[in-house]
Design a protein that fits this description.
Blueprint lengths: L2 H29 L2 H6 L4 H4 L2 H21 L11 H25 L7 H31 L5 E6 L3 H12 L5 E7 L4 H10 L4 E4 L6 H13 L3 E4 L3 H5 L3 E6 L2 E6 L7 H20 L1 H14 L5 E7 L5 E7 L15 H14 L17 H8 L7 H6 L4 E3 L6 H4 L15 E3 L1 H4 L7 H13 L3 H17 L5
Parallel strand pairs: 1-2, 1-3, 3-4, 9-10
Antiparallel strand pairs: 5-6, 7-8
Subcellular location: Membrane
Organism: Candidatus Andersenbacteria bacterium RIFCSPHIGHO2_12_FULL_45_11
GO cellular component, one term: membrane
Length: 473
């Protein structure tokens, strides 16, 4: 561990503590300001003087810092993504405020200023985020100047080594510099690099490396206390989620396809039901307005129904607001053979996607209202009813057509381990601009690494996509 990493990891604790106290003080004095007093006079300062209030705030700040530590916000490395950090800050502060509210309720004490709690909540999130942003920027500046970087040896050749070399050279803020790339694994070359440059980390980039070569790397790392990482082979990739079992006296490791087996699946379903129900309630004015626009713009049904492949490849009928002229809609309910012929014609001439999927810009089959609702993803809102019925999830792999699924390779079948989603890893990482193979890799990564935090991050990114994505139409 670099001294700079230890320093920046340690200094975040007092910075967060000061930011939380500053947020509390700012909320207190804002409530006593002339503007706030003019709206409603404050009387709590007589029952809770500033000194006593700050003592309580210090206790709450320590609790929140403990929650930050549980969330991993004091990890020493700088490679954490900004959105991940902001999400964890928001979660830690939210839980801390909820504990304060719970304490007030259980102690049967009446705190006379809800304004202070809400304002301190907002200020805490803003001040902590700003403090961490400044620390991160200072750390990045130092890393770009070569201070505190990790000196890395890439052991093995091939595309993984080349890709890592490019990434480390392009993103100096990650804190890595490649001091050597060894095609042949032996103790002497490693020792020479260590004596000349020093080594902080070895990354084995060849999944087909022999056991003898791997042992050399492991022994060298162990002797000089060097961090060791490696690119997994195919079996190890599938063994991302393992559970220990014992049958009699025989120890067994069970490969789990996804963390969404068992309680994870139950948790995700509860969130889907609650989220879709609330979404339908809050978005009902928008849903009604869209129905009126579609009905006025063109003749035909309001909803477009299409068969898609769901979990375990079980077909289901997906719901969308109709965005095309009804005579061009493909399916037994709609335009029939002429619509199918038009679809095949466009697919053969104007498909912008690689792989089995079809996508084109300026599709002549789309109505003027259809372009608008596609741009803002309004056409997909009826899928909330698919989620409520249990056919889809709020987040998951994109649901595809059966004829597209027929063209999948064997490894793509893992996409059907869980329910398809309204949004997901692929959609927030490039949407229609992604090649199919890249989309499949992202969705499989989501399946193998699902967590509640990942879902929260993806939901936040999905909202951001609405305002900046250029691939919707």
């Amino acid at each position: 561990m670099k001294r700079s990493e230890l320093f920046f990891g340690a200094i975040l604790v007092p910075i967060d503590f000061v930011a939380l106290l500053f947020a509390s003080a700012a909320a207190y004095y804002l409530r006593l300001s002339n503007v706030a007093q003019g709206v409603r006079p404050a009387v709590f300062e007589f029952d809770l003087p500033f000194a006593e209030y700050m003592q309580l705030s210090a206790i709450v700040a320590l609790v929140i810092i403990g929650l930050f530590a549980i969330h991993g916000l004091y990890a020493m490395r700088v490679t954490r993504k900004v959105l991940d950090e902001v999400t964890q800050i928001f979660s830690g502060i939210s839980i801390g405020i909820m504990l304060v509210i719970l304490y007030i309720f259980l102690s049967a004490e009446l705190f006379q200023s809800r304004f202070i709690i809400i304002t301190a909540y907002v200020f805490a999130f803003v001040f902590v985020s700003i403090g961490r942003m400044l620390v991160r920027e200072i750390q990045h500046v130092l890393l770009r100047r070569g201070m505190g970087v990790h000196r890395v040896v890439l052991a093995g050749n091939g595309p993984f080594a080349a890709e890592l070399t490019k990434i480390f050279a392009r993103k100096r803020e990650l804190g890595y510099v490649v001091v050597a790339q060894l095609d042949t694994i032996a103790w002497e070359p490693l020792q020479q690099v260590y004596n000349r440059h020093g080594i902080d980390e070895i990354i084995q980039t060849n999944p087909t490396l022999t056991d003898v070569d791997n042992l050399v790397l492991l022994d060298f790392s162990e002797q000089y206390k060097i961090e060791y990482r490696y690119v997994p082979n195919i079996f190890e990739t599938h063994a991302m989620n393992v559970q220990y079992r014992q049958i009699g006296s025989v120890p067994v490791l069970e490969l789990s396809r996804t963390p969404l087996d068992g309680w994870g699946r139950i948790t995700k379903r509860v969130l889907d039901v609650v989220g879709s129900f609330l979404g339908i309630i809050f978005l009902s004015p928008l849903l009604v307005a869209t129905v009126c626009m579609i009905r006025k713009n063109s003749s035909g049904p309001i909803l477009y129904r299409q068969i898609r492949a769901g979990r375990n490849m079980v077909p289901f009928e997906i719901l969308k607001f109709r965005s095309m002229y009804s005579e061009y809609c493909v399916g037994p309910r709609y335009g029939g053979l002429p619509a199918q012929q038009k679809y095949q014609e466009l697919k053969g001439k104007a498909n912008e996607r690689t792989g089995p999927l079809f996508k084109m810009r300026n599709d002549p089959r789309i109505t003027s209202v259809g372009r608008f609702i596609r741009k803002w993803r309004i056409d997909e809102l009826p899928q909330l009813f698919n989620v409520l019925r249990g056919e889809m999830s709020l987040l998951g792999p994109r649901p595809h057509l059966p004829e597209e699924v027929a063209l999948y390779n064997k490894h793509h079948r893992k996409l059907f381990t869980i329910k398809p989603g309204m949004s997901g890893m692929a959609q927030v990482s490039g949407n229609a601009g992604l090649a199919f193979e890249e989309e499949a890799k992202l969705d499989i990564a989501y399946i193998e690494n699902w967590s509640m935090w990942l879902d929260i991050i993806l939901l936040m990114k999905t909202i951001g996509i609405l305002f900046r994505d250029k691939n919707a139409v």
